[in-house]
Amino acid sequence: MFMGEYNHTVDPKGRLIVPSKFREQLGNEFVVTKGLDGCLFVYPNEEWHNIEEKFRNISMTSKDARKFSRFFFAGAASCELDKQGRILLPSVLREYADLEKDVVLVGVLSRIEIWSKDRWLDNNNYDDMDEVAEHMADLGLSI
Predict the structure, then answer these.
(1) 97-136: b or e for each residue (b if 16 or more CB lie within 10 Å)?
(2) Per-residue pLDDT tens digits for 33-72
(3) CATH code of residue 43
(4) Is residue 133 part of a domain?
(5) Residue 58, Cβ neighbours under 10 Å: how many?
(6) CA torsion through residues 65, 67, 69, 72, sign
(7) Domain span at residue 85?
(8) 62 within a domain of the structure (yes/no)
(9) Which end of the chain is more exposed for a tag (fewer CB within 10 A), N or C?
(10) Of 42, 43, 40, the residue nearest 97 (C-alpha)
(11) What is the pTM of this model?
């Protein structure tokens, strides 16, 4: 399970250090793809294979299913750690998530999210958590 928040930078060549706590769980190779809310999603290979299986069972007669699968899979890239614990993020993914320099890596259960620091600060205001928690209870999640 991934958890925690880490601040890092993308270097001019598009390389990003993956925090050591995340590297332990990811292994040397994993998948990075376009995520929701303007961030990137990072999945260990095993979790990525589970997602692939779920998509294989979805009917492609649904326009939304086709559109989402193109968004999710066409944007995916297999990444490998170098000896310094860095990955090279493809330019198309850096552009999508607006990753220029300062980034935030966030552990979210089965995945990691990579955010530009500015987007992270803009999109993650927790002033409405009481209301959100009530909606989560409607979905069957209580803490």
Answers:
(1) bebeeebbbbbeeebbbbbbbebbeeeeeeeeeeeeeeee
(2) 999 999 999 999 999 999 999 999 988 898 998 999 999 9
(3) 3.40.1550.20
(4) yes
(5) 13
(6) negative
(7) 2-138
(8) yes
(9) C
(10) 40
(11) 0.91
Residues 109-119 pLDDT 10s: 999 999 999 99
Answer whether residue 120 is part of any domain.
Answer: yes
Element holding 130 (H helix, E strand): helix 129-138
Residue type, 77: A
In a domain? residue 143: no
Query: How far is the C-alpha of 84 from the C-alpha of 51, rounded, in Å?
Result: 29
Distance CA 61, CA 82 (A): 41
CA distances in angstroms from 17 to 10, 39, 59, 115, 116, listed in the order given: 8, 17, 38, 14, 14
Q: Which residue has the tokens 């009481």?
A: 130
Which position has the token pair 């995945």?
Answer: 111
State the residue for tokens 């290979």: 45
